Amino acid sequence: MPWVIGFWASLVVVPWYGLEAGLSSQSWPAAAEAAWHGRSWLLVLLPPVLLASLAGGLRWPRLMALAGVSGLLLLALEAWLIAGKSQPPLGWGALVYASCALVVAAYGLAWQGWCRGDVFIVAAIGAVCASTLVFVGYPVSCVLISAFRDNAGHLDFGLFAAKITDRSIWGLDCLTGGRNCGVAWNSLALACIVGVLSTLIGLAFALIAARTHFPAKRLLRLMSILPVITPPFVIGMSLILLFGRSGMVTAWLNHWLDIPRSRWIYGMTGLTLAQLLAFTPIAFLVLLGVLQGVSPSMEEASQTLRSGRWRTFTKVTWPLIRPGLANAFLIGFIESLADFGNPVMIGGNFRVLSTAVYFAVVGAAQDQGGAAVLSIVLLAFSLTAFVLQRAWVGRRSYVTVSGKGDSGQPGALPRSLHVVCLGVVLPWIVLTASIYGIILVGGFVKAIGSDNTPTWEYFLTAFAIGHGDHGFFLAGSAWNSLFTTLKVALIAMPLTAGLGILTAYLLSRQRFAGRGVFEFLTMLSFAIPGTVIGISYILAFNTAPIELTGTGLIMVIAFVFRNMPVGIRAGIANLSQVDKSLDEASLTLGARSAATLRRVILPILRPAVVTAMVYAFVRAITSVSAVIFLVSGEYNLATVYIVGRAEFGEYGLAIVYSAVLIVIIVSALLAIQLLVGERRIGRREIAQKRVPTPELAQA
Amino acid sequence: MTLPSDHPRVQFRTVGKSYGEVAAVRNISLDIAAGTLVTLLGPSGCGKTSTLRLIAGLEHPTSGRILIDGQDVTHLSAAERDVSMVFQSYALFPHMNVLENTAYGLLASGMKRREAEESAVAKLKAVGLAGFERRLPSELSGGQQQRVAVARAIVLEPKVLLFDEPLSNLDAKLRRQVRDDIRALQQNLGLTVVYVTHDQDEALAVSDRIVVMQGGFIVQDGTPRDLYERPANRFIADFIGNANLIPVQVMACDGDLATITLGTVRMQVPHRGLSPGPALMAIRPHAVRVAAGKTGVPFRGRVCKAAYLGGHIEYVVAIETVGAEVFVIDGNVHAPLAVGEVVDVSILVADTALVPASDEK
Ligand SMILES: Nc1ncnc2c1ncn2[C@@H]1O[C@H](COP(=O)(O)OP(=O)(O)O)[C@@H](O)[C@H]1O
Ligand SMILES: [Mg+2]
Q1: Contact between residue B28 and residue B14 where contact means Cβ atoms under 8 Å apart
Q2: Ligand 1 binding pocket mutation candidate from B19, B55, B58 (most atoms within 8 A of CB)
Q3: Which protein residue has the closest C-alpha to ligand 1 atom 11?
Q4: Domain boundaries, chain A
Q5: Among residues A640, A492, A639, A515, which one has the least CA distance to residue A563?
Q6: In what order do the strands lie in the sheet with B265-270?
Q7: Cα dihedral sign, A353-A358-A360-A363
Q8: B34 within 8 A of B8, measured Cβ to Cβ
Q9: I want to staple B14 with a disulfide (CB 3.0 to 4.6 A). Which of A80, B64, B251, B260 is the partner?
Q10: CB contact, 8 Å: A582 with chain B?
Q11: A413: Cβ–Cβ under 8 A, 6 or more apart, which residues?
Q12: Are strands B71-72 and B63-68 parallel, antiparallel or unpaired?
């Protein structure tokens, strides 16, 4: 049995310690470490392997399960009890040992009839659970624990109580004339305002798109994908270039109308504007879906019942979309809380929780405990909103609206409402267009606003290719981070999609004990703000037993677990439209579930797989909040590099680089569209409704 | 084909299956002989599909053991069992053409592509689909889709072939033909088939043996003739062939026969294990003769309803002396009886059966 052989190999062949050192390292297999380096406690790992060999040969289910489970437990015990004291961080040997123990346990349990006797399913559930626990559950609990510790590492509840009730978090000075309120209030206020306004503006867009004959509907569709392709802080940055002290608009106003230059854009106003620009498209998508879900026949019915347009809208349409509005609000709220890029760019002295966490860690204070406390507050807010949103949307979000087009004309908008919506939408389109215009051209002029002579200077600083004695070389300062970003994104892409789709398959096709908990866990990483993930990874993976900081791997892992939920949702939405008897037929035809997954489910789930891949790739390129904690000199990422440049006021470089990122993302999207296309999918008659895009944007 | 052995092909040993609170299958014991077609029959929700899926390995029992050819397969997954299933929805893979669908199982078991495709083509020919190899399932009619599903299942030469309500997605005209095709195929190839249906006519027509289920239990297990002529209880008597159930009194048992009173009339019928006391007599609608006239033998009734159905007439006749209404099918369409008419009613005692008054098992 190969897995038992692997089990042996993990102890006697593969080096036990040190991930990065690889196979060539100083580190020896566990057996050798035990024999010659006095690490005899490693021997406790041997009995499970012996047991597995025996039970595997004789096919004793219970003993096999015992071998696997005890292997996992002993490994965890060995790792934690001796962590940091006298052993280096775990390496490939430990990873192989854990994997083999998991599979051995899966064999034992499947032989007893778990999951209909299917080893692959048991192992997959175990693997997804274990990895989620290690890479989501464990880091988050590290944050909790570190919040209760003082700087010397002792538990101190009094200190925690003092920290979490601190004025800097909960102070209300700004109401009584002081300078600043606590960051918690700042975050909440900002999130509420952004939630409400983005919902209203999004509704105006959705009404225009779904209920009028607006001539440029493609433009609206284009707007809806903007947040997907834009790194979050870019909006803030280009607002500065427009409205900052030396911004373009500011300069005009100063020149023509003598309005004095000011710094109003830095702070809550500018931040609100930036977040609205960034998140309104998401609200638009959500509400468009909701509006399209309102069957036109209801509005027609209302009109035949002697109700005018206004009455039809207020009495029929509005009540039907109200739940959707609440959903859009909560999504905007969560997005605003989690946003890190814009506050860091444009927040000025207006601190919110996500930036406060960051500055507590990187600032002079190096106050990890303080950062942990702030993280807990942030986490509590966004988890509450997340739970509310889940409860509100409930299972409905998984069920797509029936594809059967309900013929009939949607009711026209009441005239006054139509005018109001246009009044919101048109200026907003102009604003968005100027924002993106600035991003695309701003990097190719000397100093936008004051000196508009075209220049390649910034572009060449970033992306120059030099020519020296040894031929061509990459001279630009951005190449390094760009390649790292692409590499990390490309590695994370299939892993994220694979794990997401596998989890979706388990959730929608298998019944097992603890399924609800499992689902909650996997969705949880969705709700955890990136900043919290970042700090938690630093706290959890900085030292033995698992040391990952400073590697490229930690970024890949962060991306995989942050972006996996989109794969899960896309997968579940698609799977719910695929008849379960297809996989069962494949099973009864003798294909095991792994083969069934590969040969039947995956081809049918192609749209979901593509969605998940695209999303994983794009998010890995654009996100900044989690990875800003995780980058190192060796592995810097594009977004972090850009934020760094912008912080030093080098906007030209930052904006050129952002434009390049956006161009790369758009070309990647187009390439995927061309490559995958609709060819194979179109052949099929099976209900292949597209994954509802709000799900995608909802991250 | 596998060699005949002394084991039954499929054995259920006190198998139970619950989904949480719901017990779908309760302590079933069942043997299925090789080379026979056994039907699981019962009303919707009685646990037929669950039983079928237990054989396939798509569900695993909560209690009990399942054996196939004497080997304990209770904990084997569906892929590890030598069992194929034809699904109610056919479950053809939409992204594969007919040939790929049919060869799928062979390829999964590691056969070379050429060989697999050759056997697949042969089986497609056997089910009358030669020339359809390159079509996609979506380009086939319902009946053709089903034949692909059958070809795909039998090409693996499984030990047991399972059908879950195979006719339910076909239009009425096609049903009889497909039913006969399945039976012919089973007999020609000597397949062991377990067939699920809720339609008694279908069950009677195709089966070697019928297992009647109710509420997760097996209530009777026998040949179609057994079930029709000797129903074990009132449920089966009613379910198969719509028998009239008339209360009678068993007065005495003597040898195989019991003396009963039906209203005021005494008669002798096989007692079938009943002891003296109240019982029910199952009388088939065909076993009642009605005729205009005033002979008064042995019962006198009045026509309450009459419905002309072309080939026969259905009556509901109230028999005063018994205090019951009986449902009658009368082939004599040329002399219809009018509603309200008083008629002579006679019962063919040979076509009746006694069943217990209450339905405990
Ligand atoms: N997956 C399931 N989860 C819960 N209950 C089920 C499930 N499958 C079947 N049942 C229940 O088990 C009983 C038997 O179902 P089934 O075997 O499908 O009946 P039949 O095929 O005879 O109509 C029904 O009451 C049904 O509701
Ligand atoms: Mg059924």
Answers
A1: yes
A2: B19
A3: B24
A4: 1-112
A5: A492
A6: B265-270, B257-262, B244-254, B277-283, B352-356
A7: negative
A8: yes
A9: B64
A10: yes
A11: A207, A211, A212, A309, A313, A421
A12: antiparallel
Residues A358-370 pLDDT 10s = 888 887 667 778 8
- The pLDDT-based confidence of A677 (bands split at 50, 70, 90) is low
Q: Tens digit of pLDDT for each residue in A411-446? A: 677 888 888 998 888 888 888 888 888 888 888 887
Residue nearest to ligand 1 atom 10, measured at CA: B24
Cα angle B320-B323-B324, degrees, rounded to a multiple of 5 = 105
Rounded distance, CA A91 to CA A68, Å? 19
Q: Compute the residue count for chain B.
A: 361
Instruction: Give the residue range(s) of CATH 2.40.50.140 domains in chain B.
Output: 234-356
Q: Which atom of ligand 1 is nearest to the CA of A511?
A: 1
Between 3.30.70.3270, 3.30.230.70, 2.40.50.140, 3.40.50.20, what CATH number should domain B234-356 receive? 2.40.50.140
Instruction: Name the residue of B17, B21, B22, B87 whose CB sits within 8 Å of the most ligand 1 atoms, as the mutation to test its pocket.
Output: B22
Nearest chain B residue to A117 by CA distance is B77
Topology of domain B8-229 in CATH is: Rossmann fold (3.40.50)
Distance CA B152, CA B140 (A): 15
CA gap A45, A68 in Å, rounded: 11
Model ipTM? 0.82
Please tell me the distance in Å from A676's CA to the nearest CA on chain B: 15
Q: Which residues pair with A465 in a beta bridge?
A: A474
Give the whole-angstrom CA distance, residue A210 versus residue A411: 10
Name residues whose C-beta falls within 8 Å of residue A444's C-beta, 6 or more positions apart in sequence: A454, A455, A456, A458, A459, A656
DSSP state of A684: -
- CA distances from residue A151 to A311, A354, A364, B204 in whole angstroms, order as listed: 63, 22, 15, 82
Asked which of A51-60, A67-76, A103-112, A246-255 is least confident by mean pLDDT, the reply is A246-255
> What is the average pLDDT score of chain A?
82
- Tell me if residue A610 falls in helix, strand or coil: helix
The C-alpha torsion from B263 through B268 and B269 to B270, rounded to 10°, is 130
CATH 3.40.50.300 occupies which residues in chain B? 8-229
User: What amino acid is encoded at B190 in this protein?
Assistant: G
The chain B residue lying nearest A112, using CA atoms, is: B75
CA of A443 to the centre of ligand 2 (A): 66
What percent of chain A clears pLDDT 70, i.e. is strictly above it? 90
Does B105 contact A590 at a Cβ distance shorter than 8 Å? yes
Chain A partners of B95 at a C-beta cutoff of 8 Å?
A: 603-604, 680, 683-684
Is A171:A180 a contact under the CB 8 Å cutoff?
yes
Beta-bridged to residue A472, according to DSSP, are A467
CA atoms within 13 A on the CB side of A591: 23
pLDDT digits (tens, 9 = 90+) for B23-60: 999 999 999 999 999 999 999 999 999 999 999 999 99
Decide if B156 contacts B83 (C-beta within 8 A): no
Lining ligand 1 with CB less than 6 A are B 19, 22, 24, 42, 44-50
A-B contacts (CB, under 8 Å): 106
Other CB atoms closer than 10 Å to residue B93's CB: what's the count? 22
d(CA B116, CA B104) in angstroms, rounded, equals: 8
Long-range CB contacts for residues A644-653, cutoff 8 Å, separation at least 24: A646/A233, A646/A237, A646/A345, A647/A344, A651/A237, A651/A240, A651/A241, A651/A442, A651/A448, A652/A442, A652/A443, A652/A446, A652/A447, A652/A457, A652/A458, A653/A443, A653/A458, A653/A461, A653/A462, A653/A477, A653/A478
Per-residue DSSP letters for B264-296? TEEEEEE-TT--SEEEEEEE-GGGEEEEESS--
> Whole-model pTM?
0.81
| Ligand (nearest to CA of A511) | 1
